[in-house]
């Protein structure tokens, strides 16, 4: 048998002691056909796993896998009855299975475009859940009520931030219905082609966020003369100046100080109108969730992600929308989505985006070519196939209704897919530009993320991390791993909490002020 060097597991001291039930049943079987189980807690070597009739041969960190029978070199490793890699050597039962002995390789896929499609039975309008939202004049519904100050390029960033900073808690006291004045700065807009896909993508991202239902008014700031020309931006996105949408050109105002003063005056003029909006009962069909996972661990695909999937199935039955994204992080399991696509054409759209990513990443040391981040790896994920298996569960088992380009307006209800990178701030920025009025973010390692103008609700995959980082986490899905709550019960809890946050209850990231730096348009096509 070939000797391999095992990776180091990241040791984190837990403030939560395993229960007696967890010690008696320290491993989780996910499917009768699997040849690995997942360690519920850290398992010492020589531990008898009674349910599997095996003895562990090495220490197995929580969230990692154990072989339940002898495996031959090249044999598929099955988790959730899905191949996540192949045994790199002959391996006896009881072995710790991870990236040191699971080989990443191409998996045969049967896309079955649309063959397993079953339409969702959507509740009648009078039966749908309700929340308190801001009803806009065009019929869209907001979960928050912000005034935004937007930089056309990075050259306007200081002016944008100074304008927004002026409107502190005291300045906003007279406008109780307005959540605040939010800055939207980024590092793009210059050093780019003047036309083509990268500029079109930046225009979509800025335009979609400016027109977002959660933005009651906006000031758009440019230096003047940038590659991302402010007039071209307005023309491409159908934007027209009015009482709640203004241009501000720094150079035309006479410099930084005068531009800041003018921007403050423009925002001050908008606030009384923005404050006229009031929350009222509306249908949950108006909730559009951007689905994200970051800092995943071996439990993410067992608790937080599938529980969020249950919640999204409930939302979709209520007429709402869930946006699954992070294209490079569904690679290897995309066939589970194409099979239940609304039409074969929808499934083929998804495969086309996968093919683009494979070509774009050809020969590069990136995730889609097998390697996951050090944090994901330490948390129990051997490769991108295993990560994708868990990540795709955020959408539940709902049919795939449509596939969108990055930051493209989402108009189809139900489960949809948006092509984005796996990097969370970039992915969520595209989802919000597409219309998401909330983000649900699962994490096993403890990502401290927030977003504007749509709030982020964070779901912890395991109880020890939730306890350590309770000030950042909105809900603990680790109780599923602990054996205290079923996935169905957890999904209902998540859905109920989504309704509360959509109605105005602050998320943890909002309470901490996280989100003002997380507007990150996809930097595709930066050439200089």
TrEMBL record:
Domain SAF: 34-103
Family, per entry: Belongs to the UxaA family.
Keyword check for rRNA-binding: no
Gene3D superfamilies: 2.30.130.110
A UniProt-annotated Pfam family: GD_AH_C
Organism domain of life: Bacteria
Gene Ontology BP term (one): D-galacturonate catabolic process
Phylogenetic lineage: Bacteria, Pseudomonadati, Pseudomonadota, Betaproteobacteria, Burkholderiales
GO MF, any single term: hydrolase activity
Protein's name according to its UniProt entry: Altronate hydrolase
Key words, A-Z: Hydrolase, Lyase
